[in-house]
Amino acid sequence: SLADEDNGASYCAYYTPVNMINPITSVKYAVPSAALVSNAFIEKYVTRLPYSIVAGPNYGKIIAANLVGPDYNYSREDRDELEPFGVNCLLYVPRKGTYINSNQTAKQNPVTALSKVHIRELVTFLQDEIEILLQNYQWEFNTQSLRDTIRQKADTILQTCQFNNGIH
Prior knowledge:
Elements: E1 14-15, E2 18-21, E3 28-31, H1 34-47, H2 56-59, E4 67-70, H3 76-82, E5 87-88, E6 90-93, E7 97-100, H4 117-135, H5 144-163
Parallel strand pairs: 1-5
Antiparallel strand pairs: 2-3, 2-4, 6-7
Helix pairs in contact: 4-5
């Protein structure tokens, strides 16, 4: 079974394995895709926004030397079973390559906004940004003026996310 709510389900995502080939022996073997998926997420943090979606042929591409493709050719029916369970299938599509096809966290019961990886990352991003903001006001008196200042700065953070399509 996948992680449940008490064990951080909204903080984790599962991705299917990939097949690699040994260039010397030409033997194929299945490996976890974690490192390759992580590379796609690092690329996102370098070139896009922390809460951008890492999926699809444009932003979820899996690239590695000796990569053959997904460990299994997942059909639409397979994906209809796995994705609502919280498993993100890797697909191979000719002329597009191997890529992450979904955006699910392990939190699928009940399904909420936190069932999507990019929403969990948005919430984490906002928590981090607000925490940094609040650190500037530690030990200050809880006055209306202070609350107004903090709210104005928090609104600026949220407006930036809204401008970048992170919040609607």
